[in-house]
Amino acid sequence: MIAQDTVVLWNRPEAQGYFRLGLACSSGFDSAKPGQFVMVRIGSEVDPLLRRPFSLLGLIHEQDRVAGIEILFKVVGKGTDRLSRCKVGDRLSVIGPLGNTFLVPETCRRLILVAGGVGVPPIRFLAHRLLAQEEPLRRCLVFVGGRSKEDLVCLTEFDLPGFLLDISTDDGSRGNLGVVTRSLEKALDAEPADLICACGPQGMLKAVAQIAIQRNIACQVSIEAMMACGMGACLGCAVAVRDDDARYRHVCTDGPVFDAHRLKW
């Protein structure tokens, strides 16, 4: 983990209200992994006061080194609105990489990835990392969902060898009509999975976790939470767990990736 000033390389609209931001970093991200996040300061020291957390969408490579990072964000308030107006050459303060990562065992043969809305970044990062490993998975199903087609981002990023993409929207404007977990259940009825990795809204994650628990499938979820520091000082991102030694864990230091079977939903 390192705090540093970064330079905006690009800030492109990805979909309606969504932006893809590339940042040049001097160091610190060579070992960054899918699921980890950064804390970004937007604007002055006091406006907005707090940094904003963003999952890593991926790494920017320059020849044989990591030269920067990409994040994806949706404009939902003052901070992200200011971030959407950043221009090439602007400087942003970043702390990271923070948090833990998805862990896909070598024995996994059938993996399912589930992403909803702004939960796409760590899933996209994981898919590309798996493709780059020495022995890539032979088959991976990717389920991406959104309220409408305007909430579907980075779909072409999953056009990868051995990866099958299934799209759902609540209003049926693209792909299957209905929530993404409906398509997930149909796929599991046809063939079980070894592991499910998911990121998205809390309601979606709860539904994915319940499906995994009912079917006794290993499941890792990346929890999205607002946080003030990202390093365990504020204790504002607590989640209830079933651990014997604690009632709560914290998204920033114990997560953001958790075993879905250990969370209290």
UniProtKB/TrEMBL annotation:
Binds 1 FAD per subunit. Residues 1-104 form the FAD-binding FR-type domain. Keywords: 2Fe-2S, Electron transport, FAD, Flavoprotein, Iron, Iron-sulfur, Metal-binding, Pyrimidine biosynthesis, Transport. Pfam families: DHODB_Fe-S_bind, NAD_binding_1. InterPro entries: Cyt_c3_hydrogenase_gsu (IPR012165), Dihydroorotate_DH_ele_sf (IPR037117), Dihydroorotate_DH_Fe-S-bd (IPR019480), Dihydroorotate_DHASE_ETsu (IPR023455), FAD-bd_FR_type (IPR017927), FNR_nucleotide-bd (IPR039261), OxRdtase_FAD/NAD-bd (IPR001433), PyrK_electron_transfer (IPR050353). One of its GO terms (molecular function) is metal ion binding. Its cofactor is FAD; [2Fe-2S] cluster. CDD domains: DHOD_e_trans (cd06218). [2Fe-2S] cluster binds at C229, C234, C237, C252. Responsible for channeling the electrons from the oxidation of dihydroorotate from the FMN redox center in the PyrD type B subunit to the ultimate electron acceptor NAD(+). This is Dihydroorotate dehydrogenase B (NAD(+)), electron transfer subunit. It comes from Desulfosarcina widdelii.
